[in-house]
Amino acid sequence: MKRIHSLFIGLTLMAPILFLQSCLSDDDYDDDYLAICPIDQPNALVTVKPNADNTGFIMQLNDSTTLWPVNLRQSPFGTKEVRALVNYRQATPSDIEKGSATSGMPCVFVNWIDSILTKPVVEGMYSAEENLQIYGDDPLEIVDDWTTVAEDGYLTLRFRTRWGGKAEHRVNLVHRTDVNTPYYFTLYHDAQGDTEGQTGDALVAFKLADWMMAPSDQDYATLTLEWKSYSGTKTTQFKFRQNKGNVSSTSEGH
Q1: Is the dihedral angle over the CA atoms 24, 38, 189, 81 positive or is it negative?
Q2: Which residues are CB-neighbours of 6 under 8 A, at least 6 positions away?
Q3: CA distance 194 to 191
Q4: Dist. CA 65–CA 79, nearest whole Å
Q5: Cβ of 149: how many Cβ atoms within 10 Å?
Q6: Angle at 164 between CA 159 and CA 168, to 5 degrees
Q7: Residues forming beta bridges with residue 232, ordered by sequence position
Q8: Is the pLDDT of residue 149 over 50?
Q9: Rounded CA gap, 35 and 67, in Å?
Q10: What phi-psi label fits residue 197: left (phi over 0), alpha (psi between -120 and 50 degrees) or beta?
Q11: Mean pLDDT of the region 122-128
C-alpha cells in the first residue's frame, strides 16, 4: 500500500483499543498489522481520482463536493482510482501560493492520506450454495459508523471479525443474479481458517458497476446488502443516485 502517513484503523470490542491497518493488497488483511491508534485521526473519506497520466488529481468528498489538494502534485496511488481516508484542512492563502489552485473547487491542504482496499463488484454467476464454496462462509459484522457509506459510485464498508494472523482474509461483494430483487448483493468473507484471535475492524470499498450508475428516469434506487453475521444472516439497504453516477450516504438496516 502506498501512503503518505502510516494509518491504522479499526476498533476492538474490548479495551485496550487496537487498530488494524486499512489495506495490505487487493485481497488480504493480516493480524501482524495490529497497532495502537495514531494520535491524528481521519476527518474524511474520499475518492481519489487522478487524471490519465497522474499529473494531478482531485478528491471527491461526497455526491456534490470535490476538493483540490494544493500541496500534492500527484496522487500517491498512481493512476488507480481508490477510496481513501484523509486528514485535511482548509488551504490558507500561503498554502495556495506555494502550491497550486484551480477555479471552482475548494482548496485543501492534505496532512496525510491513506488508501483503503478498493475492489470491483463480482458479477454473480453461481447459485447461493456455490457462492459459499467459492467466496467463503465465515461470519463478520458490518459496523454502523460514518465509514460505512454508499456514495460517489462506491459502497464502502467497515467490518468486524476475528483476526488470528494465521492466514489472509478475503472479502468479496457479489451481485446476486439468482435473487429476484434488483441490486441485491452479498458480502462474503473467507477467513481461510483464521477464525480465532482478537476482534478488530477493517475497511473495504467496492466500485459499483457502471450499469448501476446509468441514467434513469428515477433519481434513486435501493441497494440491498446481505452478509452472514455471528448471529445469523442480516441485511441492510442503501439508496444510491443513479442519474448522477453517484450514490447517497443515506442508509437503513436491520
Answers
A1: negative
A2: 38, 114
A3: 5
A4: 21
A5: 22
A6: 70
A7: 229
A8: yes
A9: 30
A10: left
A11: 90
